[in-house]
Design goal:
By secondary structure, the protein is an all-beta fold. Helices cover 0% and strands 50% of the residues. It is built from no helices and 41 strands.
Length: 503
């Protein structure tokens, strides 16, 4: 809080409920809510696997479900899965095996676990199906899960209990805009969306078995684009939708903005082999095809993975005469602009030119953040903000920052940068070469807050210092909460989970 660090839990910590944490694993799933609660799984000294909650400002964490607790299905909990989520009201949903069977459960704040579904519950694909990947909304009224990765399901809950799982989608679902076609399968790792729209890569069957970009909106399933479909304008057809980060967003596979689904596709076309496309309520639009005229250079030679924030689409691309740029459009149908290109000048006092983009940009078309490498400047790496056709230097390698240390390399830690939906609040990481340390940073407006400097930042309650092996953070930037798992050097614990509340 206000730049300080709080250890949420550490190895060996004795909890408020009396037991001690034996071990925190680096793969622990951590869930947070808008009130500042942190919920996670841990190995306990006496009871084995358990679910632990650290309420906001609570002096100690407490176990809320233990392996030996009574299970609503009969007997006791025997194995608690890592997948869980917590609502803003503090209600936790989780999967577990009991001596009385497997189930999905909800744990209200002031009472014991309640069964959401068990193997005996009839689901969209019959009974005997495990519900996995549970997620609960902020109110605690709606729970979604997937059954054996083949169907999407939703559970509605009240204070009196939960309804049986309601199928959102299952194999055999009709494709509304393709009569005779039905859903054959879902690629669950591509699923993304918002309150109104879900989009994912899947397969349809009917006249043929085809790969497709699919959209579920208000209960209606549409094929945004399918293999062999004609391209917008009719000149050519879609071939494939690559799984290697081709369809957009945080997962690198699917992305949904406000009424926009954008994706990359390999195509059959008289003059193009690849393109960025977007689906809106007005239909499907080609954003940029290879061979199209480019705002910088003569024409696009290749186009890369797009990202979406709101309705803004941003993508990297190269041109046939050698320009490599970040391009953006404020919305489908709007003009494409080159935000920045390699060899563009870097403003004073840094000087020099852009040598490379170290990561994909994050933000909206008129307000992007990206770390860059610089050629022949007074600094060799900087975090840059491109806002309304103006390049602004945020921080550079070797600039001084809090604590008398210096910024080192940006973009080398593998954590990357991310922004919230507005594009204005940024979480990122860089390497401090002066002390061989990683630094986790938060940028809110004009304020930069170093959250953790590895090997320098003390690890509260357990002694020692946070080690260089920073994990990948999970964050609600606009909500000001960041959670990070990291190792500890020289303390009583070797691994801990930390929470930061930004000022």
């Amino acid at each position: 809080s206000s730049g300080g660090t709080t250890a949420v839990a550490t190895d060996g910590m004795v909890l408020a409920s009396g037991e001690a944490i034996r071990r925190l694993r680096t793969q622990e799933q951590i869930a947070t809510n808008a009130t500042g609660d942190v919920v996670f799984t841990a190995d306990l000294e006496t009871f084995g696997r358990g679910i632990v909650r650290r309420a906001h400002l609570a002096p100690l964490p407490a176990t809320i479900v233990r392996r030996t607790d009574a299970c609503p299905l009969g007997g006791t909990f025997e194995a608690i899965d890592d997948e869980l989520d917590v609502s803003d009201a503090g209600e936790v949903v989780f999967d577990a095996d009991c001596s009385g069977g497997h189930g999905a459960f909800r744990k209200p704040l002031a009472s014991g676990p309640v069964t959401i579904a068990s193997l005996a519950t009839t689901t969209a694909i019959g009974s005997g199906v495990k519900l996995g990947a549970l997620a609960i909304d902020g109110t605690g009224m709606r729970i979604a899960g997937s059954g054996f990765r083949t169907t999407l399901q939703s559970v509605a809950c009240t204070k009196k209990g939960c309804s049986p799982p309601v199928p959102l989608l299952a194999p055999g679902a009709p494709i509304a805009n393709a009569p005779g076609e039905t859903l054959a399968g879902i690629v669950p790792e591509t699923l993304a969306g918002n309150d109104d729209t879900l989009a994912f890569l899947g397969f349809t069957v009917g006249s043929a078995h085809r790969q497709a970009v699919l959209r579920l909106e208000k209960g209606t399933l549409d094929a945004v684009a399918s293999e062999a479909d004609l391209l917008p304008g009719g000149a050519g057809a879609f071939l494939t939708f690559p799984l290697d980060g081709a369809i957009v967003a945080a997962t690198g596979t699917i992305g949904v903005g406000t009424g926009v689904v954008a994706f990359l596709a390999e195509i059959q076309h008289p003059t193009a082999s690849r393109g960025v496309f977007a689906a809106t309520k007005d239909g499907l639009a080609a954003i940029a095809l290879t061979g199209d005229p480019a705002p910088r250079g003569t024409a696009f030679d290749d186009v890369g993975m797009p990202t979406v924030r709101q309705r803004s689409i941003v993508f990297p691309a190269s041109t046939i005469d050698g320009a490599a740029c970040i391009f953006a459009t404020a919305a489908p149908g709007k003009a494409i602009a080159a935000v920045a290109c390699l060899d563009d000048p870097v403003p004073a006092p840094i000087g020099g030119t852009i040598e490379d983009f170290l990561m994909l940009p994050s933000g909206v078309a008129k307000d992007l953040h990206v770390p860059i490498a610089i050629r022949d400047g007074t600094r060799d790496e900087c975090l840059v903000r491109f806002v309304r056709n103006e390049t602004k230097i945020i921080r550079c390698r070797d600039d001084a920052y809090v604590g008398g240390l210096f910024y080192g390399a940006f973009g080398d830690t593998g954590i990357g940068i991310t922004t919230d939906a507005t594009g204005k609040n940024v979480l990122g990481a860089m390497v401090d070469s002066t002390v061989d340390a990683d630094v986790l940073l938060a940028l809110r407006g004009k304020a930069i807050v170093p959250l953790v400097t590895s090997a320098v930042t003390p690890a509260p309650t357990s002694g020692g210092r946070i080690s260089w092996s920073l994990g990948i953070p999970t964050a609600s930037i606009a909500g000001r909460t960041v959670v990070l798992a990291s190792g500890i050097d020289g303390g009583a614990a070797t691994m801990a989970v930390f929470r930061f509340v930004l000022p």
